[in-house]
Design goal:
The complex is a heterotrimer of chains A (260), B (357) and C (554). Chain A has 260 residues and is mainly alpha-helical. Chain A is built from 12 helices and 2 strands; from the N terminus they run αααααααααββααα. In chain A, a hairpin with a 5-residue loop joins strand 1 and strand 2. Among the domains of chain C are: 32 residues, no CATH class; 302 residues, Cytochrome Bc1 Complex, Chain C, CATH 1.20.810. Chain C is built from 20 helices and 8 strands. The chains are: A mainly alpha (260), B alpha+beta (357), C mainly alpha (554). At the B-C interface, helix 3, strand 1 and helix 7 of B face helix 5, helix 7, helix 8, strand 4 and helix 10 of C. Strand 1 of chain B pairs antiparallel with strand 4 of chain C.
């Protein structure tokens, strides 16, 4: 018999078979999966192309004219910033229902995001996508940003921007690694549970300060050692028991056992 | 209720007692069998390898010495690190924090080595080289012998007689009286540790006409600055000039939000302005800022103990340990369009207290 | 007399001390005191050494910390704070962390040590409880220990509130709310404690005095008394061959325990230092200075106060009563004052409760194996379960975000579990203990299962058991068979009541609750009877040198 057949009863044979099956199935699925809805080449520019993208990906929930249906709110007046945020971070199109729409891998590509944002912006005036000067952390006052962040943001997102709990399974997400553009857009558009921090309440300079603060604390090393998630006394207590006390009990056991 | 273990699988009988059972089964053997097992005495001493083998003992000695040496190394590392990583130079922020981290790490690891291996060495020494034959010490009852106890009683009685306390009730009573009074100054002297509360807990910095300003920047707010779904964290104008700004802030913190006027409860309409409402930010449970605003559900959540207040029901409590709703600050606009308080709070803000009402 | 220099110095020092304080008598009495060896006896030492570490590092901290809430503008190295108005306390702590070499390390050792201190006390307390080491004559030591754990918890709370940062300040706000909730005098007590309204200017300096002077002073006195009693009573020991209630078997203090226990101090210090080197704790620079307006998500106290935070989170709001112009905040009084108060009192009184149930007046120096005291062990596990339900409640928002659950569901579930789990835990634990005791009996009566199966020519199949050696057997049979108290009517022939007999009914019921379900230790008579039944097997077991039959598979 062949070498392969001779190993047919090998203990790992089952494992190999299962793995093979998974790989084949996965590859076939990926190969045969229908592509994303392609916007037809825009003849009349972004707004028209955006309308097509919208109809293909968003209208099922948000209505044919973005007027909103059931749980999906109206998009009239939310502005390009809102769309760029929601679709750019992959929160929309909504993958599955739950307490809220979480960040996920982007489904629509950059062009489509731009187009559908232009379309929504054309429906009614709303916050526009910020320019790179607006969301740049250059020229932001880190200290002032910290003060503003602590008063307006830390109660949901935690002092280090690591996120926090809201009611009924909703949550304010972790801000680490978030593109400053999205931070700006979130403040200005108030996505989902987050309230709106428009430019009169937190003016553009203040927004820049907040972004500068976030980037500074994100990039700064943690002076005391491992930051343990920056969630405060809960992780510290866990480490005290699971590392400290455990190690000391281990040493005590060593101390008390008779030497060989 | 009581458990029985009736005849088990191997046939043992009646081995569990209730109430007043007697011990022991009737068996063939007679009273030679003791009622309980006897202590077999200390087990035979087992020698360690270092007791028997001189080379093993020498090896253990070297191990202990190595540990002490490692400790000395750790001390040197600590001292070197202390001087090597300077914290007084002008460098960029990230570099500076990196230095602090490095200094903390090196000093800490050095000290760890220094401390831990003195201990480990001493313990290893005791375990491998010091004699480990078990020794026995005998206990004595804590209580004294009958004679000692009798003596003690006699001494106490004699002493009591000699003091005369028993025979002289005047002495005893005045002594008790004086002793009962003497703690009082200790309590009275604490009176000036603080003023009396009076009306302090029920008044805040808000008066009629006080402008709403943004926290922490201090700018005033116009009604049209707020869109539906937005929130602003507010302090009264001029609070930084108060005598005790933090004390005032702890009562005067306010949240201002704008809703669709139809969504407001009827009780909150009087104090609202075109859908804009202002509520105390200080939780009526234990005083944390109720700062989390869920724009879509119109819920205010306190992060400390998860009390949840519904903005569309005049901030009534809908979950959690709070009882009272958040007090509303009635607002209106002044002639320049800035949001101002119509009047102060009509009730005390923050946690409940006995005389609050 | 010795001729070496060291010898001469030692001799003259010894002489100096002997002539002034009778050192030779101390040496004779104390140097060879015997201590038993078991790792679980080291837990109290972890606590003791942590206390010493706290004092050493804490002293360093006081050289730099400024106990004042006076305003200052921070102009130090930490950019995100620059230009902000902060308190002197906060600014000095940030400066200590960033500008002083070793400052951050000392702060972190101090804080990690505090967490380990309370953790070690707790585990030590569990060991003492579950082994019955609180019984006579050690009840006083148990009371001292209970007071120490209380003081340790408050000491830690006050300590981490000193830097006046956002997180600890929020915690002080909670204390303000608790004090206000005290019926009738709440607002007055608050104004005396805080020197006025919250936060006031007086509180941080007062906390400083309490934290570095008052509580440590009381704790030093209590710890000294605690250790003195351990030496006076001699340490208890686990049962074993050669160990009786009237002796202590172990090793001498000098030199073995001088080395082991002294070395362990360095171990504890070293491990704590390593944690401070590797893990950030209490990054107050990131929290910001305390202000009553902002707050961070995930506001929790340090772990040892977590159960109180959880109790407060779980208590619903309808407990607060309003009547006749007064407010009675039972929603705070119950979880924050009443429950901790009841737990503390039960803790302190427990030795007397159990002693009343047993009627036992003897001294106990041999520890119980927890399985041999099933009701006590069950009650202990029940109490720990209750505590854990409260403790988990304190972290409900962190649990929610990390496990993707709803805080409302977690809170409601814990409200239910708080009452459902502890009795269940009691029953399960007690049954496990009784089961273990039965398995001990089996082992004594029938020997250890060797795993070797024997088949006779008649086709009978049985497993060979190896009888326990007297040493191994002793541990399983040495405990007392405690029976419920048999109390009579309490009256004599003339119908005169015995004093104290009014409570006999309750006492009998408690005694039965403790001891009715029990498994008694094997007696020699029972073992002999068991041997009789095994007659046939014994003959075969005596021949167990016979080789095993070859197995049938190729």
């Amino acid at each position: 018999m062949t070498a392969l057949a001779a190993r047919r009863r090998h203990p790992l044979a089952t494992v190999v078979l299962v793995l093979l099956g998974l790989v084949v199935t996965g590859a076939a699925y990926a190969a045969l999966l229908p592509g994303r809805a392609q916007a037809t080449d825009a003849v009349s520019g972004d707004v028209e192309a955006g309308r097509k993208v919208f109809l293909a990906n968003c209208s099922t929930c948000h209505g044919l004219n973005a007027e909103g249906r059931n749980n999906a709110p109206s998009l009239i007046g939310v502005g390009a910033a809102s769309v760029d945020f929601q679709v750019g971070t992959g929160r929309m199109p909504l993958q599955q229902s739950g307490p809220q729409a979480p960040k996920s891998n982007r489904e629509l590509d950059e062009d489509e995001v731009r187009q559908v944002a232009a379309y929504i912006a054309s429906l009614a005036p709303g916050p526009s996508i910020p320019t790179s000067e607006q969301y740049s952390s250059e020229g932001g006052d880190v200290s002032r940003g910290g003060l503003i962040f602590r008063t307006n943001c830390a109660m949901c997102h935690n002092f280090a921007g690591k996120g926090g709990a809201l009611t009924r399974g909703k949550f304010a997400p972790n801000l680490t690694g978030v593109d400053p553009k999205y931070v700006y857009e979130a403040m200005v558009s108030g996505p989902q549970s987050m309230p709106v921090f428009n430019d009169q309440v937190i003016d553009p300079q203040a927004k820049r300060d907040v972004i500068a603060y976030l980037k500074t604390i994100e990039e700064a090393p943690s002076p005391g050692g491992l930051a343990l998630g920056s969630i405060g006394p809960v992780s510290e207590g866990l480490v005290a028991w699971a590392v400290g006390l455990l190690a000391l009990i281990g040493c005590a056991v060593w101390l008390g056992t008779k030497s060989s | 209720m009581s458990t029985h273990d009736a005849n088990g699988p191997t046939g043992e009988t009646g081995l569990e007692r209730h109430g007043d059972g007697h011990g022991g089964l009737a068996t063939h053997e007679e009273a030679q069998v003791p009622e309980r097992f006897e202590n077999p005495g200390l087990p035979q001493h087992q020698h360690r390898v270092s007791d028997v083998d001189a080379r093993a003992a020498k090896r253990a000695e070297r191990q202990v010495a190595a540990m002490f040496g490692l400790s000395a190394l750790g001390t040197i590392v600590t001292i070197v690190a202390y001087y090597a990583v300077q914290l007084d130079e002008e460098v960029s922020f990230d570099t500076y924090l990196g230095r602090v981290q490095l200094s903390n790490f090196l000093l800490g690891v050095g000290l760890f080595l220094a401390l831990f291996f003195i201990g480990a060495g001493a313990i290893h020494w005791a375990k491998t080289l010091m004699p480990d034959d078990e020794r026995v010490e005998y206990r004595h009852l804590q209580r004294g012998t009958e004679e000692t106890r009798a003596d003690a009683v006699r001494i106490l009685q004699e002493g009591a007689d000699e003091s005369g306390l028993g025979r002289r009730p005047l002495l005893r009573n005045t002594l008790l009286g004086a002793l009962a009074l003497i703690p009082l100054p200790a309590v009275i002297l604490l009176r000036d540790t603080g003023p009396l509360p009076e009306k302090a807990l029920s008044t805040t910095f808000w008066k009629a006409g006080t402008r709403l300003t943004l926290d922490p920047t201090g700018e005033p707010l116009k009604a049209e600055d707020l869109t539906i779904g937005s929130i602003a964290h507010i302090m009264p104008e001029g609070i930084e000039e108060a005598e005790h700004p933090l004390n005032e802030r702890a009562k005067a913190a306010v949240l201002v939000m704008r809703l669709n006027p139809d969504d407001l409860a009827s009780e909150s309409e009087d104090g609202s302005y075109s859908g804009i409402v202002a509520y105390s930010k200080i939780c009526t449970h234990m005083g944390c800022p109720v700062a989390l605003y869920e724009q879509q559900t119109h819920h205010l959540l306190c992060p400390c103990h998860q009390s949840t207040f519904d903005l569309t029901q005049n901030c009534k409590v809908i979950f959690g340990p709070a009882k009272r709703p958040l007090p509303q600050l009635p607002i209106t606009v002044d002639d320049e369009g800035y949001l101002v308080a119509k009047e102060g709070f009509s009730q005390a803000v923050g946690p409940s207290f006995w005389e609050r009402g | 007399m010795s001729t070496t220099t060291t010898g001469k110095v030692a001799a003259s020092t010894g002489n100096f001390l002997d002539e002034r304080i009778g050192a030779s008598k101390l040496v004779k009495a104390g140097a060879r005191k015997i201590f038993p060896d078991h790792w679980s006896f080291m837990l109290g030492e972890v606590a003791l050494y942590s206390f010493v570490i706290l004092i050493l590092t804490g002293t360093f901290l006081t050289f730099f910390y400024v106990p004042s809430v006076g305003h200052t503008t921070y102009e130090g190295v930490y950019e995100p704070l620059r230009g902000q108005t902060v308190s002197e306390a906060y600014a000095s702590t940030v400066r200590l962390s960033f500008d002083i070499r070793g400052g951050l390390l000392m702060r972190q050792i101090h804080h990690w040590s505090a967490l380990i201190f309370v953790a070690a006390i707790s585990v030590h307390m569990f060991r003492v409880f579950f082994t019955g080491a609180f019984r006579k004559p050690r009840e006083l030591n148990w009371v001292i220990g209970s007071l120490l754990v209380l003081l340790a918890v408050f000491e830690g709370y006050f300590g981490y509130s000193l830097p006046d940062d956002l997180l600890s300040g929020t915690g002080l706000r909670i204390m303000s709310g608790i004090i206000l909730s005290i019926p009738v005098v709440g607002s007055y007590v608050h104004f005396f404690v805080f020197g006025g309204e919250f936060p006031g200017d007086e509180f941080i300096p007062r906390l400083f005095t309490i934290h570095i002077l008052l509580i440590p002073g009381i704790m030093v006195a209590l710890i000294t008394a605690h250790l003195f009693l351990v030496v006076l009573h001699k340490h208890s020991q686990y049962p074993g061959p050669g160990r009786t209630n009237d002796n202590v078997v172990g090793y001498p203090f000098y030199p073995v325990y001088t080395a082991k226990a002294g070395g362990f101090f360095f171990i504890v210090f070293g491990v704590t230092t390593l944690m401070a080197a590797l893990f950030t704790i209490n990054p107050i620079w990131a929290y910001g200075s305390y202000d009553p307006s902002p707050v961070t998500a995930g506001s929790q106290p340090d772990w040892y106060m977590g159960f109180m935070d959880g109790a407060v989170r779980l208590t619903p709001g309808f407990f607060e009563l309003h009547f006749l112009g007064y407010s009675l905040s039972l929603n705070i009084v119950i979880p924050a004052l009443l429950i901790p108060g009841i737990i503390t009192n039960l803790l302190i009184l427990y030795p007397w409760i159990e002693a009343w149930a047993t009627g036992d007046r003897r001294e106990h120096h041999l520890l119980d194996r927890p399985r041999n005291a099933p009701t006590r062990t069950g009650l202990g596990v029940m109490a720990i379960t209750f505590y854990l339900c409260l403790f988990l409640g304190g972290g409900n928002d962190i649990i929610a975000t990390h496990l993707g659950l709803s805080i409302n569901d977690i809170t409601n579930t814990l409200r239910f579990l708080l009452f459902a789990l502890p009795p269940l835990a009691y029953v399960v634990t007690k049954r496990i203990c009784l089961g273990l005791q039965r398995s001990d009996r089996e082992k004594v009566l029938h020997g250890r299962e060797t795993g070797r199966v024997f088949r006779t020519e008649d086709g009978e199949v049985f497993e060979l058991h190896e009888e326990l050696t007297p040493q191994a057997r002793w541990v399983l049979v040495q405990h007392d068979a405690v029976r419920p108290l048999a109390l009579d009517d309490g009256e004599d022939e003339a119908g005169v009541r015995r004093p104290g007999s009014r409570f006999d009914g309750i006492r009998r019921r408690i005694s039965r609750f403790y001891f009715e379900d029990r498994v008694e230790p094997v007696t020699p008579a029972e073992l002999a009877a068991a041997h009789h039944e095994h007659g046939a097997h014994e003959a075969i077991e005596a021949e167990e040198e016979r080789p095993a039959l070859p197995s049938g598979q190729a």
